[in-house]
Amino acid sequence: MIPQIARKLLAEYGTEGGWLLDPYCGTGTSLVEASLFGMHSVGCDINPLVRLIATAKSTPICLSTLDETLNRLNDPSNIAGKTATTMHEENIVICQRTTHT
Questions:
Q1: Which residues span the domain enclosing 38?
Q2: Are residues 96 and 77 in the same domain?
Q3: Residue 12: what are its φ and ψ, rounded to 5°?
Q4: Residue 93's CB: how many other CB atoms inside 10 A?
Q5: Are residues 19 and 44 in the same domain?
Q6: Beta strand ranges found along the chain (DSSP E)
Q7: pLDDT at residue number 52
Q8: Are residues 40 and 75 in the same domain?
Q9: Are residues 34 and 13 in the same domain?
Q10: Is the same domain home to 49 and 66?
C-alpha cells in the first residue's frame, strides 16, 4: 500500500491514541502511517522477509543514539588498526550510503 492511501484511511477512520490492527501488514506502511498519525499499531504477516522490513520501518530510532553512533563511525581512530572481529565485538558497524536516482 502506498503511504497516501494509508494516510487517507487513517484520517477518515482512525482516532489519535487508538489502535490499528493490520493482519496482512506487508512491509509495514500502514504501521508507519499509524505511528505518524498518533496511533498504536500491531501488524502480522506470514512472510518473514516482509516482517523484517516492517519491523525495520516501524521501529522508532532515538536521535541522540543515532548521532552518537554516526559520530563514532566518522572518527577514524575508532576503526584504524582494528580487525573485523574486534569491530564486531565492539559493535562498530560501517555502512555505505547509497543514493537512488
A1: 3-58
A2: yes
A3: -80, -45
A4: 10
A5: yes
A6: 19-22, 40-43
A7: 95
A8: no
A9: yes
A10: no
pLDDT at residue number 64: 87
- Residues 6+ away with beta carbon under 8 Å from 78: 72, 92
Q: Which residues contact 14 (CB under 8 A, 6 or more apart)?
A: 20, 34, 37, 39
Tens digit of pLDDT per residue, the chain (101 long)? Answer: 899 999 999 999 999 999 999 999 999 999 999 999 999 999 999 999 999 999 999 988 888 888 888 888 887 776 655 555 555 555 555 444 444 44
Residues 54 and 74 grouped into a single domain? no
Type of residue found at 1: M
The answer to whether residues 86 and 54 belong to one domain is: no
Q: Which residue has the cell 575508532?
A: 78
All residues at 6 or more sequence positions from 73 whose CB lies less than 8 Å from its CB, including other chains: 79, 92, 93, 94, 95
CA distance 34 to 91: 32
- 65 and 54 part of one domain: no
Could you give the CA distance from residue 55 to residue 3 in angstroms, rounded to a whole number?
16
